[in-house]
Amino acid sequence: MTVNLLDFDAQGLEAYVAGLGEPRFRARQVLRWIHQCGESDFARMTDLAKSLRGRLASEADVRAPQVVGDSLAADGTRKWLVKVDGANAVETVFIPERARGTLCISSQAGCVLDCAFCATGKQGFNRNLSTAEIVGQLWLARNALEGSGAAREATRAITNVVMMGMGEPLLNLDQVLPALRLMLDDHAYGLSRRRVTVSTSGVVPAMDRLREECPVALAVSLHAPQDALRDQLVPLNRKYPLRVLLAACNRYLERAPRDFVTFEYVMLDGVNDSDAQARELAGIARRVRSKFNLIPFNPFSGTAFRRSPAERIQRFAEILQSAGVTVTTRKTRGDGIDAACGQLAGDVSDRTRRTRVTRRLRPAAELNA
Ligand code: SAH
Ligand code: SF4
Q1: Distance CA 103, CA 198 (A)
Q2: Is the beta carbon of 168 within 6 A of some atom in ligand 1?
Q3: Which of 37, 118, 214, 341 is catalytic?
Q4: Exactly one of 14, 91, 133, 168 is catalytic; which is it?
Q5: Which ligand 2 atom is nearest residue 201's CA?
Q6: Domain 3-61 listed as CATH 1.10.10.10
Q7: Which residues of the chain register pLDDT less than 70?
Q8: What is the pLDDT of residue 359?
Q9: Ligand 2 touching residue 168 (CB < 6 A)
Q10: pLDDT of residue 154
């Protein structure tokens, strides 16, 4: 098997290039070709010596995962189904807005954490994605949206990246960190730390590690103001309860590129959307500098949860606002292509044997192609 250069951040590529007996600055050139130009053909990397191009062609490649599905919603949201191996495919979503374009990336095939309201969690877990499979989603999406090589458009379609697709990024930090470094690297994607967001359901030790090694914007999936309910909705809470999680948020803020944590809060009818719960959340906002992002629940087949009515969400937001909390309500995007938060299911071959809902199976031929 040849070496996949998408697995390397700048440091990794320098080490690889040094191993070929080449000077370090060659790594920077190769990085630019791959990530800034979206080039995968070494023959077209014209400022590299012919001998190096030949060497790379024989022992390395730029191998992004294969796109096996591509759907576009009426609002411009686009979803790719990306095959990562013969048995698993994950989903990547592009969400265009007036002033920015956000790419939502997956970090695992499935998820072990089994949150009660999440389609990814319900389908079980297969494996961690590699760095190449994670950053490869950005590589693919840019090529699809902006073209590649010399023809790449000067205006950027993707201005923000959020690790909010399938999986828990902080349970796959070894592979996620090099991908994040590439997103930030001026010779690769050059995004600012404020425009790259990691979303976690609260893996406390990994929050501390991210803070040390690569602090980017942080979103924390809160979903309940008290441990008893959060234990039910986000089972990981039994390991890292609210007191411990909120302390980790405050430690993170010491290094964070933004001076607040975003608390995500899925609005579940009759479960976590009462006036009293809104007031309790305001208490949490007094303990951690934060903004709240209310996410209307997105249903999927087999779930018993319902989305809170629009008036309830509005009232909930007003209570928070009147307590001085900044609140936004997430617009539901990608209607008709199942591209909204929590609906991403891909095709995961479950190894946990706890799948409880009928999975949306695609024809096997598609995956084995
Ligand atoms: N594992 C990470 C990131 C992926 S989930 C995390 O849990 O934070 C991204 C966001 O979508 C999380 O806030 C998650 O709680 C939310 N989500 C999951 N299922 C949802 C659903 N059915 N409707 C709305 N939001 C959902
Ligand atoms: Fe995993 Fe996040 Fe879904 Fe929970 S919400 S099951 S942590 S992907």
Answers
A1: 12
A2: yes
A3: 341
A4: 91
A5: 7
A6: no
A7: 353-369
A8: 43
A9: yes
A10: 76
pTM above 0.85, yes or no: yes
Residue 344 Cβ contacting ligand 2 at under 6 Å: no
Q: What ranges do the domains of the chain cover?
A: 3-61, 66-367
CATH 3.30.420.10 fits 66-367, yes or no: no
Residue 262 beta carbon below 6 angstroms from any ligand 1 atom: no
- In the prediction, which pLDDT does 349 show? 85
Output the pLDDT for position 151: 75
Angle between helices 242-253 and 275-287 (to 10 degrees): 40
> For 225-262, what is each residue's pLDDT tens digit?
999 999 999 999 999 999 999 999 999 999 999 999 99
The answer to whether 316 and 278 have CB atoms below 8 angstroms apart is yes
Read out DSSP for 24-43? Answer: THHHHHHHIIIIIS----GG
Spatial distance between the Cα atoms of 365 and 369, rounded to a whole number of angstroms:
6
Query: Which amino acid residue places its CA nearest to atom 3 of ligand 1?
Result: 164
Tell whether ligand 2 has an atom less than 6 A from the beta carbon of residue 191. no
Q: Closest ligand to 354 CA?
A: 2
Cα 171 to ligand 2 centroid, rounded to whole Å:
11
Q: What is the C-alpha to C-alpha distance for residues 9 and 135, in angstroms, rounded to an integer?
A: 10
201/204 Cα distance (integer angstroms): 9
Q: What is the pLDDT of residues 195-213, one digit of tens each?
A: 999 999 999 999 999 999 9
